[in-house]
Design brief:
The chain is mostly helical. 81% of the residues lie in helices and 0% in strands. The protein has nine helices and no strands. Helix 1 runs parallel beside helix 8 and helix 7 packs antiparallel against helix 9.
Amino acid sequence: LAVGLFLFVPLIIYQNVILYGWLLPSAQARGAWSLVVNFFNTFWLLFDWGTSTAFVKFFSEHRVKRPEEGLKYVQLFVWWQAITGTIQLGAVALAAATFMPQTANAYLSWYLVAHALIQFPGFLRVYQYTFRAFQRLDYDQVLNLVIYMAPIPLQALTVFLMTRWGEAHPAFGGAMGGVLGLGLGVYLVEIATFL
């Protein structure tokens, strides 16, 4: 809690002043990205089917007396996330390429694919859940710091670069480049958490 209170101020400054004030001031980009993120938060929750919770609970329950049984839950989590993540990415990419362009929300197609990439391979938080199962909440907290603080340099860099790319390519534009940079930044944070 104390760490969260101290990190709250830099995160708010980053998000409201740096990210959406200087790097990506487009209200359209901010609104489109929030629509996509809110949609996918529900979508990912449905596809998880509690496998991450089962992984932590049953791995920690069986790891001492029957470790081979506990490892089955780790395998279930990894395989479930890899398979459903691939299906989710494919389904979203297919929908974005075929159905979305015929609708009034066609402009969201690229944003949906950019955010859906987070689900591939889908098991990038396996170490965080392992730390929770081992009740090594100190290591889990370190990963939480990476998850909450890594967007400041990573996402700022990707948004800056992709906004400039979009401005150099008028068919896409700075706002679209910036939103793609948001997605790329989130993906790089997930990879950093895994590594």
